[in-house]
Amino acid sequence: MKKVAFLIAVVFYLLYTAGSVFAQRGGRSQGAVIEVRLASPMPRNSDWGKTLDRIASEWARVTNNEVRLRILHDGVEGGDAKMLSSLSSDNIQAALFASFGLAEICPAIMTLSVPFMIRNDAELDLVLKDTLPLLEAQINKTNFVVVSWSKGGWVNIFSKDPVFVPDDMRKHKIATNPESGAFNLAFKTMGFQMVEMDITDIGPKVANNVVTACYQSPAAIAPVGLHRYLKYMLNKPLAPYLGALVINRNTWNKISPERQRDLVAATQRIAVEFDALMPKIVDNAVSVMSRDGLKVDNLTPAQEELWRTELQRSIPGLLGTVFDRDLYQRINVILEKSRSGQ
């Protein structure tokens, strides 16, 4: 009997030891899956929404289902401020932010959105190649980590009445993000009527005439049908539409370095493909909206010069508050060299 008891004890010890060694070597017990809830203000049926769903599938595939990404589409977590608060408190673990939301983490990012400063994709690529590593390093010093950046096209002005010059824009009530207080104050001092609101509430506000204009990517306007109220689009890119997929550091640190590299590689690969498709996506969105009644207005050279003159007069007063002075000067050097053929 003693021999039987001894053998049982030995077997139990060996099984326990083997299980411990397996766990130390990376074996995962049932329930050890890491679920990441990612909030997005974009509609599920938009190209951003579809791309996020694709990223979720890739995360499951490359980690053998060890990391599962659950997408909360359609702004169900609210706007940038609410998402950032939820991200900090771990109610969500990741979020898709555009420039305004990212500026809450790294204020210098707003400098990339100086109106009419960067004029086209070629210039944007040059600027991002130089500046994104610096901005990402600043964000990664906080409690957040950038998994991937994305160029979401360009922001255009949409309005209920045509806008050709700054004085036309001053007649409109412009929807803007409430978290961007300095940015909004700057434009208020220039005579623009800024209506601070959660951008996820813009549909009812436009329908009820609380706001009569906004600046947004055509690819984001089309899926929610805002062009049926804001029937005019100024066919001049206002600023690049930059986005980033951000995860809180507490969650990121739960993922092994090897899996982190897999997730970054998979996400960035999809983001590059998305960026390459964005010009076509925007063109398709504008075509669809045009067939549905959108009027696309073009500027004359004289009208475009009016915008540049007004902004050049106003920008110096915004440096050091709304826009980062050093980064602004760095970007200008890049653009001047490019435009002079250097």
Topology:
Elements: H1 2-24, E1 34-39, H2 47-62, E2 67-72, H3 80-89, E3 94-98, H4 99-105, H5 121-139, E4 144-159, H6 166-170, E5 173-176, H7 181-189, E6 193-196, H8 202-207, E7 213-216, H9 218-224, E8 232-234, E9 239-248, H10 249-252, H11 257-291, E10 295-297, H12 301-314, H13 325-339
Parallel strand pairs: 1-2, 1-3, 5-6, 8-10
Antiparallel strand pairs: 3-9, 4-7, 4-8, 4-9
Helix pairs in contact: 2-11, 5-13, 9-11
Task: Please summarize what this structure is.
By secondary structure, the protein is an alpha/beta fold. Helices cover 50% and strands 18% of the residues.
What would you note in describing this structure?
The chain has 342 residues and is α/β, with parallel strands linked by helices. The protein has a single domain, classed as D-Maltodextrin-Binding Protein, domain 2, CATH 3.40.190.170. It is 50% helix and 18% strand. The chain has helices at residues 2-24, 47-62, 80-89, 99-105, 121-139, 166-170, 181-189, 202-207, 218-224, 249-252, 257-291, 301-314, 325-339, and strands spanning 34-39, 67-72, 94-98, 144-159, 173-176, 193-196, 213-216, 232-234, 239-248, 295-297. The strands form 2 sheets. Strands 1, 2, 3, 4, 7, 8, 9 and 10 form an 8-stranded mixed sheet that branches. A two-stranded parallel ribbon has the order 5-6. Strand 5 (173-176), helix 7 and strand 6 form a beta-alpha-beta unit. Helix 9 (218-224) packs across helix 11 (257-291). It is globular and about 60 Å long. Residues 1-31 have low confidence and may be disordered.
